[in-house]
Design brief:
Blueprint (H helix, E strand, L loop, with lengths): L2 E5 L6 E5 L5 E6 L9 E2 L1 H15 L16 H10 L6 E4 H7 L6 H9 L12 E2 L12 H10 L3 E2 L5 E2 L2 E2 L1 E3 L5 E3 L7
Helix pairs in contact: 3-4
Amino acid sequence: MRYASTFPSPIGALTAVVDEDGALMELRFERQPAPDGVAWDDARCAHVRRELDEYFAGARREFGVALKPRGTPWQQAVWTALQSIPCGATIDYRALAALAGNPRAVRAAGRANATNPIPILIPCHRVIGSDGSLTGYGGGLEAKERLILLEGGRKTERGRVLAARCMYVEDRFGAPRLLDPAPPS
């Protein structure tokens, strides 16, 4: 059995879907259709709402909710790679593909990113275009911008949104790697 609850957030209503053990299976934005075949139960989803409320209040940078997204082995690899991007950082799709284990599968990594069933907790909003631009997001680009700003990003004078830090670099052999600098102050 799956259980669901819809609650407000600064980026619009969110619907959490959890399994019998409380593991989060889906997080939907208000612009997405309501899930089918669920029992609506706020109490079973309260732990998800609490952690998201703390995140939006700036009191949480990592989540402790158990995650149980359903997807192919490649999607799972991409979603695992997404979880390695620290709060306040961004990477591009090429780096995401490399982190997932196939540096040539940039478009496939982008597609897996787009089908992420648990946005925010599996932080697909932290992936940007190679030119630094914000790219598509299931909750809309305005929500993506708000999440990056919440995590310490800033807007330039020209209105461009920059993350607190960009985590992707190439080593001397051209291989992408994730940096681990000190968190932003």
